[in-house]
Amino acid sequence: MTVVVDAAPASPAPRSKKARHPVVRWCAYLFGLIVFAWCATQVFYFVQIGIWTFVNPSDTAFMRAARWRFWHEDQSIAFVHEWVPYDGVSRNLKRAIIASEDADFVNNNGFEVDAMLQAWEKNKKKGHMAWGGSTITQQLARNLFLSTEKTYIRKGQELIITVMLEFWMDKERIFEIYLNSVEWGKGVYGAQAAAAHYYKTDASKLSVGQSARLAVMLPRPKYYDDHRTSAYLLSRAAIIAHRMGAAELPSDK
């Protein structure tokens, strides 16, 4: 009697580690690219800010985004942006902006932890990011490089750029660039353009009342460009006018 024993099936040849983990390799490669791109972006920001310590920026990310948006929406809006030196801007406007936007600008390190925590609490109640608690330096960081999108990722990048600005520049230079690049209406950028647009005068000649109103417009410049007699604008401007005397300027240090 013949006994037939079935042969055990041959085990498949083991795959090499290289063939076994293609997804892992591609994920690692992609992660490496992302890290490299992020680091390269930070280096670009750092070098660019270093250049701007002595070269005036010709435009900002906000300006470029606005031009593209107006072009995309087929709006023929003229852009007005004329650079003036720090001493060419009225002390009234400088004091009004500090009183309205960042009372401790001269002494802080670019951000206010308490203000950001307050903004965090407000955002939690609203269920989305509506408040940023930004200082003047943070606003400049956003205007120079970032978008208007309100996300915590963008806020994180804003803080990194803020540290770079404070590393490279003194407060007067930060404020000078801010005064010359901040948006003040549809296609209106900088103090000189704002003074001409709203009051037909130079930035150096703005009065206390004019400066207070311009400072209050900053969070919503395009809205107030169309609502110049808003009750809130006028009442808030009166409050800022009273606070201006206590505002400390970088040149006062």
TrEMBL record:
A cellular component term, taken from the record's GO annotations: peptidoglycan-based cell wall
Membrane topology, record value: Single-pass membrane protein
Residue ranges of domain Glycosyl transferase family in the record: 81-244
Tagged with keyword Transferase: yes
Subcellular localization, as worded in the UniProt entry: Cell inner membrane
SUPFAM superfamilies: Lysozyme-like (SSF53955)
EC number: 2.4.99.28
Region forming the signal peptide: none
Entry annotated with the keyword Cell wall biogenesis/degradation: yes
Keywords of the record: Cell inner membrane, Cell membrane, Cell shape, Cell wall biogenesis/degradation, Glycosyltransferase, Membrane, Peptidoglycan synthesis, Transferase, Transmembrane, Transmembrane helix
Membrane-spanning intervals of the chain: 26-47
Catalytic activity: [GlcNAc-(1->4)-Mur2Ac(oyl-L-Ala-gamma-D-Glu-L-Lys-D-Ala-D-Ala)](n)-di-trans,octa-cis-undecaprenyl diphosphate + beta-D-GlcNAc-(1->4)-Mur2Ac(oyl-L-Ala-gamma-D-Glu-L-Lys-D-Ala-D-Ala)-di-trans,octa-cis-undecaprenyl diphosphate = [GlcNAc-(1->4)-Mur2Ac(oyl-L-Ala-gamma-D-Glu-L-Lys-D-Ala-D-Ala)](n+1)-di-trans,octa-cis-undecaprenyl diphosphate + di-trans,octa-cis-undecaprenyl diphosphate + H(+)
GO biological process: cell wall organization; peptidoglycan biosynthetic process; regulation of cell shape
InterPro entries (alphabetical): Glyco_trans_51 (IPR001264), Lysozyme-like_dom_sf (IPR023346), PBP_transglycosylase (IPR036950), Pep_trsgly (IPR011812)
A GO MF term: pentosyltransferase activity
Name of one Pfam family that matches: Transgly
Pathway: Cell wall biogenesis; peptidoglycan biosynthesis
Family: Belongs to the glycosyltransferase 51 family.
Function recorded in the entry: Peptidoglycan polymerase that catalyzes glycan chain elongation from lipid-linked precursors.
Name of the protein in its database record: Biosynthetic peptidoglycan transglycosylase
